[in-house]
């Protein structure tokens, strides 16, 4: 399938490696150097668009692509507010096209095993997660928006619960801790762009046991019960992006309801976190 790539930066260059092997032929790359004539010519030659640009540009590029009859694969997060996100998915449905937000943890074998096993550990009491690395630093983007949303998407996906998680944020833009509640479940997430060690960890604590995923370890999933039973599992976590691209290809011209629910749920969380942070700033100024 012939496609267009919006952006030519870090993530776009990673994504390119997975396109050809999953049925996509990049015929043009759109960046700030692309002239209008070339841009319009490309739009008439392709069936799909891959958008790997800053979040603030996503809305306009997705609308443009959908109105030209393209199926769209967009880097997370889709937008910073739930209203805009819903508008984009509604436009995709009206046009009969696929809009797919790139939440790769939905395609992690570790995360999918936890989703399958989650009821075995009894009612969930607490969720702990950490995602950390050094960089990437993007203008006007927080650590939560850059990497923390992976953990938010995993929680919503595993729990099949797309309602708002109410968080309080501590820390700073590039290294923050979210403490919140999802119904009766306590949730703790650390997102850091200042770590010299890359971490990808999530843990669900139930009344009967604990199940954890460490996507940087040899034993990716540990299932531990309070009666002493313990089982470990190992998976290859290196091809989650490839699986996401393949899913997009297989759902072309169709509506992917789970992807839409996850995308909206994560944006709702981020929007609420950003609103609370802005409110705290305003309050401290008035003091």
Strand order of the largest sheet: 7-8-9-6-10-11-12-13
**What percent strand?**
25-35%
Total domain units: 2
Mass-distribution shape: globular
Structural class: alpha/beta
Low-confidence stretches: 279-287
CATH first level of the largest domain: Alpha Beta
By CATH's scheme, which homologous superfamily of the largest domain applies?
Dihydrodipicolinate Reductase, domain 2
Q: List the total number of helices.
A: 8
Range of helix content = 25-40%
SSE arrangement, N to C: EHEHEHEHEHEHEEEEEEEHH
Question: What is the CATH topology descriptor of the largest domain?
Answer: Dihydrodipicolinate Reductase, domain 2
Determine the N-to-C terminus distance.
Answer: 58 Å
Write down the Rg: 19 Å
Features:
8 helices, Dihydrodipicolinate Reductase, domain 2, 287 residues, 39% helix, 13 strands
Describe the structure.
This protein is of the alpha/beta class and 287 residues long. The protein folds into 2 domains: 2-102, NAD(P)-binding Rossmann-like Domain (Rossmann fold), CATH 3.40.50; 105-243, Dihydrodipicolinate Reductase, domain 2, CATH 3.30.360. Helices cover 39% and strands 30% of the residues. The protein has 8 helices and 13 strands. The strands form 2 sheets. The chain has an 8-stranded mixed β-sheet. A 5-stranded parallel β-sheet has the order 2-1-3-4-5, with helices on both faces. The longest helix is centred in the last third of the chain and has 30 residues, at 257-286. Residues 279-287 have low confidence and may be disordered.
